[in-house]
Amino acid sequence: VVLILIVFAIILLMFSPLFDIKQITVVGNNKLSEDEIISLSKIEKGENTYKVNKIDVIKNIKENAYVESVQVNRKLPSEIEIVVEERKANFLIEYGGSFVYLNNQGYILEISGRAELPILQGQATEDKDLLVGSRLTTEDLQKMSMVLKIMEQAEANGFASLITKIDISNKESYKLILDSEKKTVYLGDCSNLGTRMLNVKAIIEKEKR
Predict the structure, then answer these.
(1) Total-model pTM
(2) Mean pLDDT, rounded, of the chain
């Protein structure tokens, strides 16, 4: 009887106003605002913290393609903390009069106006499949791994910011377009990539003298 009374008292305490949510904190967001994430979570202030289903909250927030991962923490008695890890846009694909934003894992994050990011050209993914939240085709994802190596080498050699377009239509013939330098760089199948990128750097520096 005593045990039953104790359990009953604990349950009453858990669902008392003491555990009503007074504060919702968002950590780790950059692209998305705190208000956007709280809205996605569907958590309401004044709701009992123990009535919050963490699995549902995570699922709700991850409906936004910019969200990579979510963690929901109860900070008793009256705070919910939402920790997010966001995806970052790294590339664009031309899409009609707009642009598809991609991260470096090939996830489609949004379709919007142009940003200052390299444009991928010659992708195998069809326009009808360029849907927010989806990924590029397997063929394009394989090419993306090479694109990341190209950008890493370009960054190391100090000219990544000059790359405006990357043609991935042929894996045996990757091309870089540097509009500001009025140059097209033919990398072939990217064998000896480090050496090729050093040569590109040398040519750019030589013509600036």
Answers:
(1) 0.88
(2) 94
